[in-house]
Amino acid sequence: MLVGDTASIRALVGRLDLERYKATIKGLTQFGDRRQGTARNRAAVDWIEAQLKSYGCTNTERITYNYQIDTTRERRAPGRGRLPTTAPGGARLRGNLAPIGVNTDSLAQPDLRLRALNTEQTVPGERQEVYCTKVGTTHPDEMYIVGGHMDGIGWGEAANDDGSGSALVMELARIFSSPDVVTDRSIRFILWNNEESGLNGARAYVAQRQSLQGNRDASGNYPEPRWLGMVQHDMMMFDHGMPRADHTVSKEQRPEADVNIEFQDTAKKAAEAQKLAWKFQAANEKYATNYPATVGRHMTNTDSDPFKDIIPAISLRENERGAQIGGGWDPQWHQPTDLFSTYTDTDCRLGWNAAQTTHGTIAELVGATIKK
Length: 372
Ligand SMILES: [Zn+2]
Prior knowledge:
Radius of gyration: 19 Å
Bound molecules: zinc ion
Strand content: 15-25%
Shape: globular
Largest sheet: 8 strands, mixed
Oligomer: single chain
Distance between the termini: 24 Å
Number of strands: 10
Helix content: 25-40%
Low-confidence stretches: 74-79
């Protein structure tokens, strides 16, 4: 059931500002690729927490966990080599395919300042990730989780992957934390760490907090409200279409660019996740100014994955993860070229439209209103 008052929600979505969204992405890129297990990653977590507090989302908290490098995974990591014939998540690759992989070569970054910034490599050990919560007035014990991952790889600035998703989450935290905004239910804004190493930050959250759902503490608060749904935002800006036969990709955002909402067909909560995905698609038609949204069934390789058998979990992206990003549609993916300066306003506007989509949907779901 959709609740909340449409005029209020339109006004709230109207508070999203493209320039602010861009400025937050740029802010995140000051920490280079923000690789997990480095000082630049920890500095980015501190910076994000300071931003959240400055927005009025003052009840920030951190999850602490221990990460040991999964050597089986490192060994499997592909170079920019041959593509498989099937894509992750159960998708099927079509048409022209360009090579994909993770850049691990420092010399591939021509910018010496950035090369130096990204020099420190990861070591196993303690990790942290930060979240803050908009507490609902009538149902503080129930929440939606809105996520993006703040870590990156590839010797660039991780501007799109996933500065674009992290900035979206932070912008929503800013607007929902405004003192004149009231919601019936709670919303948790979380900036996952260790996504690129295997969703380890999201997995740690589920492991530590799933059993705490709905518990009331001595002061009458709900440290872990019951989970109603989880939406992840990962790579939000670049939809320039399929690679050409020579593996090059258009320099321009394609006019038919869309926000790809994905659920996972094989998840235990697939039916509920699909319903949630269509709610996002409907809200996109109501609230997003430029780009439409498309629903697909192959959500994969993202922080909503550890939630998908427990609650309705979806992801929003610039492209389908399996068939499109897996087919080489984003040539900056995990590369030294994933820089703030790579993207035009037209690119950023796709991420901003995804922000409008999530903002409108979540505002309806939690019953958001503006206090008169
Ligand atoms: Zn990502």
